[in-house]
Amino acid sequence: MKDGRIKNIKIDRDPEGSQVKAFQTVHEAYQFLQSLGASQKLILHVKLVGEAADLLISKLHELRVRFDEKYFRLGVVFHDAGKILHPEELNAKGNNHEPDGEKLLLANGVDRKLARCCRSHGRWQTMECSLEELLVALADTLWKGKRDRQLEDSIVNRLATQCNKDYWELFVEIDSCFEAIASDGDSRLLRSQAA
Ligand SMILES: [Fe+2]
After folding, report:
1. Cβ atoms of 145 and 187 closer than 8 Å
2. Less CB within 10 Å around the terminal CB: N or C of the chain?
3. For residue 190, what are the contacts with CB-CB under 8 A and spacing of at least 6?
4. Conformation bin of residue 37: beta by default, left when phi > 0, alpha when psi is -120 to 50
5. Domain range for residue 50?
6. How many domains are contained in the chain?
7. How far is the CA of 19 from the centre of ligand 1 (A)?
8. What is the pLDDT of residues 136-154, one digit of tens each?
């Protein structure tokens, strides 16, 4: 499907005045990703990461955290867009998809801030990241059952400051959520083999 066939993506202006696509729903974002050439395997991957993101979103609402839910959801859909250009990185390690995904999205009218998640989900340790960018990286880790203490720590620290809660109090509450998401990693990995 060519991009021109997706009629309902609205156009917005970014802070510099350039035209950018304003995705209203995750479904629109999936369609757009497919129009760029995403394989079924890539779509399935981002949907499985989306399942982990949904669980994180519920917990964040429960904790009354302020965050940009739409960015988080769209970031999850687009974070691996570069694997359209580097399909081998769907099965093997490699990070060429990170900068190339960002370039691909920018060349196709995606907002700069959103396109950045292609790099930041893999390079958050060396970049200045928003909470939402860190959440994309976390969903992309937890979905397969992996825990990353450093990443989780950065997020818990931010949330503790934002919610004005004690770090350990928050840690206890949220660590069990991370563990519950990770504990289904094997079944998601199995399902990821279906495409
Ligand atoms: Fe991913």
Report:
1. no
2. N
3. none
4. left
5. 3-192
6. 1
7. 27
8. 999 999 999 999 999 999 9
The DSSP 8-state label assigned to residue 20 in this structure reads E
Cα(166) to centroid(ligand 1), Å: 31
Ligand 1 (ion): which residues have CB within 5 A?
80, 140
Summarised one tens digit per residue, pLDDT across range 88-144 is: 999 999 999 999 999 999 999 999 999 999 999 999 999 999 999 999 999 999 999
Distance CA 73, CA 55 (A): 12
Three-state DSSP class for residue 56? helix
Measured in Å, residue 1 CA sits from the centre of ligand 1 at: 23
Distance 164 CA to ligand 1 centre (A): 31
Q: What is the pTM of this model?
A: 0.93
DSSP H helical segments within the chain, as ranges? 26-35, 40-62, 69-78, 97-107, 112-115, 117-123, 131-142, 149-163, 167-183, 185-192
For residues 128 and 179, give the distance between their C-alpha atoms in angstroms, rounded to a whole number.
26
What is the whole-number distance in angstroms between the Cα of residue 79 and the centre of ligand 1?
6
What single-letter amino acid sits at 159?
L
Question: Rounded to the nearest whole angstrom, what is the distance from the C-alpha of residue 84 to the centroid of ligand 1?
Answer: 12
The residue to which tokens 């399902």 are assigned: 191
Residue 4, SS3 per DSSP:
helix
